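tool_call predict_complex ligand=adenosine monophosphate
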Amino acid sequence: MQALLSRAELFRERIAILSEGSRYTYSQLIDQSAMVAAHLLEGQRDLHESRIAFLIDPSFAYTAVQWGIWQAGGIAVPLCVLHPLDSIRYVLQDAEIGQVVVSQAHLAFLSPVLDELGIRVLEYESLDATIQIADAAPIEENRKAMILYTSGTTSSPKGVVTTHGTIRFQIKSLVDVWGWSEDDHILNILPLHHVHGIINVMSCALWSGACCEFLPKFDVQQVWDVFRTERLSLFMAVPTIYYKLIQYWQSQPVAVQQAMSASCQSFRLMVSGSAALPVPVLEQWEQISGQRLLERYGMTEVGMALSNPYQAERRPGHVGQPLPGVQIRLADSFDQELASGEQGEIQIKGPNVFLEYWNKPDATQSSFTADGWFRSGDIAVVSDGYYQILGRSSIDIIKSGGYKVSALEIESVLLSHPDVLQAGVLGVPDDEWGELIVAALVSRTKQPDLKSIERLVSEKLPSYKKPRRYLMVDDLPKNTIGKVTKHKLKSLFILDQ
Ligand code: MLC
Ligand code: AMP
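tool_result ok
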């Protein structure tokens, strides 16, 4: 935090954020975040890593609150504006949240759970701006800064804890390799409860003295409208978003298409990540925009780890080379490093790697090898220095629209419905979403109530975790020890298409 704040001091008069039609300077961001810190501290000097959650749409307010929590010595826990109350309650309880800052827009929605859990609530718009600014204690780099929730091979999401030092390293490495400067202007359309939006877009911009413009959520037409102003120099998104931008471009008359394509000349860099970028999407986008997408690879637990080069060859279907200071090796199932050319799990070491899963020492321990390498669960091969992602070691982890989703989490919700006897969830390949979430169900009754099953899922899970297709089967395919064989199940869905 200290590093971000002292960087911001260098750019006081520059525009830091464009949001909801207003411009905010770095001075305003510094002052507003100090005001938030003072309210959180209530006269103390340090929150001593108390967890502070916040539910605010991507905007100036979001950033001011995040920086305010950091200045006050708290751990920032961003809540997802798309999550239903059940998912939010889980995070509030798991992270043992002490206070929540919420914008007016989400207050009525959140209040019942805050009352239920007895959590102090601060309504952002009602904070008294005349409060005396706190004399907050300096925050050392090894202190915990943020918890982001990520799905894994367990049914409940885990809180990934990073320190101020980890975050500084993650930001600085991207600023250096992608040539960020104060002249840059980026549009954020990503959700701000994941590293892609928080670190790669917003924090890199603010470290650099650049301008970060927010749309509250992705909207394909609005994104093209902003492109057409030609004020942007950078754009970063998941492959699904490039797919949608291409589709929209294709739907327009030729003269409009030409103007849209011409507006892409203002960019110096466009980046894709969070999921595999299909080569046809890269090629079509290059034809439309003249921009060769730079694909990189990362993870909530490690920030960014591999990146195609900014200046040299960006190889389609590959995620490039290790970022400076990040060590990567490919290992077999016994954690032994493999010879060049062999396929293995990506394992990662370096100052970019997270500290721990919140309150889950066993999960933390098992995600590292005995000699301290983080096990990513992604399988890759390297040729000529360029890494290529081949898949994941677990079929229970799905990537849909760039979101990581646990099949087990969805199955446990489905199984809580009285009509469902067995449930098998997985991802099937899909041009638009990367993977589409599908579920096979064995029903307890002759006529299962699919509508009420879908209602239950919507109540318990955000829309991006919803199965998009259901298949009713008599039994799930299982192996000799009774475990569901998901690869067999997957072929049922593919045959059924
Ligand atoms: C939404 N829809 C889906 C879906 N999500 N359909 C299938 N599969 C999905 N996953 C449907 C909705 O039901 C709705 O349909 C329609 O799409 C529009 O819904 P929406 O919620 O408005 O979607 P949209 O805003 O268009 O969302 C698409 C998206 C979003 C790509 C913008 O998924 C997104 O923001 N993804 C980014 C996630 C991210 O930031 N990941 C980074 C994780 S960090 P209908 O019919 O109801 O209208 C990480 C590390 C790293 O991975 O390397 O970066
Ligand atoms: P998350 O936990 O949401 O941070 O997602 C991290 C996962 O996204 C990684 O483990 C990969 O499986 C996937 N991922 C990120 N970038 C890429 C990429 N460029 N190509 C393929 N998979 C990717």
